[in-house]
Each structure stands twice: as C-alpha cells, then as structure tokens.
C-alpha cells in the first residue's frame, strides 16, 4: 500500500487494513509505504520577515523545512 493510510482518519484506516488482512493469504506480506509528516510550527525567529499563513492554514504554508 503506497500513500493511502495517511489520508484516512484512524477509524477508517483500521477498517482498510482489516479488509486487506482479511483478503490476504497466510503467506502474504503487507508493505506500507507512507510519509511521516513533520509537525508544523510558527517560527520564533524572523517573524517580521516571514509571511505566515492565515488561520486555519498551517503556520508555515505546509513547508516542513521552514
């Protein structure tokens, strides 16, 4: 499964994985390839020179490298 589970709330993700498990044979293996999202934050330095996203957008415009 590639880039699927992260798009779903926990309840639905569990249901997806349960259905995959039910469809697997005893010899099957499941590989999940997904992203780990770095939490965003409001920069504490250079606040005057950084354009912050308006609420409710992520503080750093979803750029985790900021």
Overall tally of structural domains: 2
Order of helices and strands: H
Q: Which structural class best describes the helix and strand composition?
A: mainly alpha
Shape: elongated
If helices are DSSP runs of H or I spanning 4 or more residues, what is the number of helices?
Answer: 1
Percent of residues in helices: 10-25%
* Radius of gyration, in angstroms, nearest whole number: 18 Å
Arithmetic mean of pLDDT:
75
* Distance between the ends: 29 Å
| Sheet with most strands | none
Which range does the strand content fall in? Answer: under 5%
The number of distinct β-strands equals 0
Unreliable residue runs: none
Main attributes?
2 domains, 66 residues, 1 helix, mainly alpha
What does this structure look like?
- This protein is an all-alpha fold.
- The protein contains one helix and no strands.
- The longest helix has 14 residues.
- It is elongated and about 55 Å long.
Summarize the structure.
By secondary structure, the protein is mainly alpha-helical. The protein has 1 helix and no strands.
Q: Strands, helices and their partners?
A:
Elements: H1 10-23
């Amino acid at each position: 499964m590639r880039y699927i589970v992260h798009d779903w709330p926990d309840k639905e993700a569990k249901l997806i994985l349960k259905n995959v498990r039910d469809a697997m044979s005893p010899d099957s293996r499941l590989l999940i390839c997904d992203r780990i999202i770095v939490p965003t934050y409001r920069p504490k330095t250079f606040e005057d020179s950084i354009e912050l996203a308006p609420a409710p957008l992520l503080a750093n415009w979803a750029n985790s490298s900021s």
